[in-house]
Amino acid sequence: MFFAAKNAISRERKTALLAFQKKAQLRFKSLELLNLAFTHRSFTNEDAAHSPNNEKLEFLGDSVLGMVVATYLYELLRDKAEGDLARIKSYVVSEDTLSLAAKELDVPRYLIIGKGEELSGGREKKAILADAAEAIIGACYLDSGYEAAERFVRSLVDPEISKILQNRHRKDYKTILQEYVQKYHRGYPKYVLVKKTGPDHDRTFWISCAVGQEEYGPVSGKNKKEAEQSAAKAAYDAIVAAGGLEAARLTQIENQ
Predict the structure, then answer these.
(1) What's the confidence (pLDDT) of residue 231?
(2) Residue 5, in any domain of the structure
(3) Peptide bond connecting 218 to the previous residue in cis, omega within 30 degrees of 0
């Protein structure tokens, strides 16, 4: 694992960044900009002499990512309705998808994070990895222009888009369940936080999901979003396993 010097990039760090570039098939004019993309605010919060972090690059990268994916889907799927494109795009640019792409590129190895975040497993947190992926996109755009950023984004998202079109992707059970409940039960799934366990820096959240009078769970996750997704899957699995009309309705929503 590598850590930035306060005022300059060390020789060891430059070697590491060049290795990342090779793996990601990128070529930066400014390694300082790439290094900034890996610098999490937890590091700068602990080190007053090193104030810049990757948040503004993340902000920029999010917009570039959205533009690239929207344009590609528009050109690729001209026969699809706007709602279908929006659904695919939301999955492709999601935290889950970006964090997995970041792991494929070995981003955790290059992150610069604070000691507290290090101790709480920050290198493997989905939010931090997804944010870093967006920051790298933003840095690539600033360093080399839109076309280079587009190529990088496409290298990240094309495999996931292919999986979606072949129905081999990970399901967004929370969205599927919400559409099902809205359409057939004129309501919304209700998610209830049952309990929290573990120390403050390593919480586990237990959440149940109610659909009408039926309650599913509780199931756990390392944050509320993850636990809600797991609770939605528990509800989905139970409804499908029960069979009958409701199962047919639910799978119809899934396959739309």
Answers:
(1) 94
(2) no
(3) yes
